[in-house]
Amino acid sequence: MDRPRFRAYFLHPRFWLLWLGLGLLWLITQLPYVVLLKCGRGLGALMYWGARSRRQIAARNLQLCFPDLPAVERKRLLKENFASTGIAFFETAMSWWWPTERLAPLAHIEGLEQLKQAQAEGQGVILMAVHFTTLEIGAALLGQQHTIDGMYREHKNPLFDFVQRRGRERHNLDASAIEREDVRAMLKVLRAGRAIWYAPDQDYGLKQSLFVPLFGISAATVTATTKFARLGKARVVPFTQKRLDDGAGYRLVIHSPLEDFPGESEEADCLRINQWAESAIRECPEQYLWAHRRFKTRPEGEPTLYKKRR
């Protein structure tokens, strides 16, 4: 995929409101990091009360995944999750626009040798992650230390798509954002010995998915991880990230590659992935993207687990 280029079309009046919003966000992100964290928590509080449908989805997910947690604790976790989501709004802007020298000190990376060793051996890497609210800044911080490509979904607004792609690709001169439906490009970069960020923890429907447990609930889980690892001759290397409570930045951990992967069957691989995802989420559940309807697709005959949208 070619690098994003600025077009005169982006100066059309239809984009002026977006330009204004982006400019305001850029100005806010010049504030100190600790101030941005507080701003994010404030935004999260507004979202908690204003985004009713998302709040209901997140609350339902927490109820399904942590049924033994007292209701008062789940509510506290829900509010913390919205605070984390609000902070992520400013973290995204930081990852797009902060100078490298300002962003880099926030990174506390462990296991970088896993990627360097694979690169030295010409081995492709599927950097397997989950959708934490810190995913944008986590990828940016890691990208400053090692070239990683990323799966990408084109935004409907061409100006926002331009800003988003340029922000994501700026940390590596040769990094690229790959459209998530472009399997051929995905396999090409893996066979070339590159590392690509990939998260298989969302519900993409029945197509190319199997039902395996996640938090004890049957969850439609994509089999693509197995296919990519096999066809791309790649290692699957788990990657986790966490926003540190003391405001010191982010702990990024590149774990050891999964052994004997792919395994005996796609179902066994999916189960293994979900078990890993569950353990990663349990480490910092307040920073996970609970507003996604993870259990939307149900096995035949099972009722929906969410309220119907109006």
UniProtKB/TrEMBL annotation:
The chain crosses the membrane at residues 16-37. The gene is lpxL. This is Lipid A biosynthesis acyltransferase. One of its GO terms (biological process) is lipid A biosynthetic process. It is found in: Cell inner membrane. Catalyzes the transfer of an acyl chain from an acyl-[acyl-carrier-protein] (ACP) to a Kdo(2)-lipid IV(A) to form a Kdo(2)-(acyl)-lipid IV(A). Signal peptide: none annotated. The keyword Transmembrane applies. Pathway: Bacterial outer membrane biogenesis; lipopolysaccharide biosynthesis; Glycolipid biosynthesis; KDO(2)-lipid A biosynthesis; KDO(2)-lipid A from CMP-3-deoxy-D-manno-octulosonate and lipid IV(A): step 3/4. One of its GO terms (cellular component) is plasma membrane. Keywords: Acyltransferase, Cell inner membrane, Cell membrane, Lipopolysaccharide biosynthesis, Membrane, Transferase, Transmembrane, Transmembrane helix. Its EC number is 2.3.1.241. It catalyses: an alpha-Kdo-(2->4)-alpha-Kdo-(2->6)-lipid IVA + a fatty acyl-[ACP] = an alpha-Kdo-(2->4)-alpha-Kdo-(2->6)-(acyl)-lipid IVA + holo-[ACP]. A motif (HXXXXD motif) lies at residues 131-136. It is an enzyme of class 2 (transferase). Belongs to the LpxL/LpxM/LpxP family. InterPro entries: LipA_acyltrans (IPR004960), Lipid_A_LpxL_LpxP (IPR011920). It is a single-pass membrane protein. Its main location: membrane. GO terms for molecular function: Kdo2-lipid IVA acyltransferase activity.
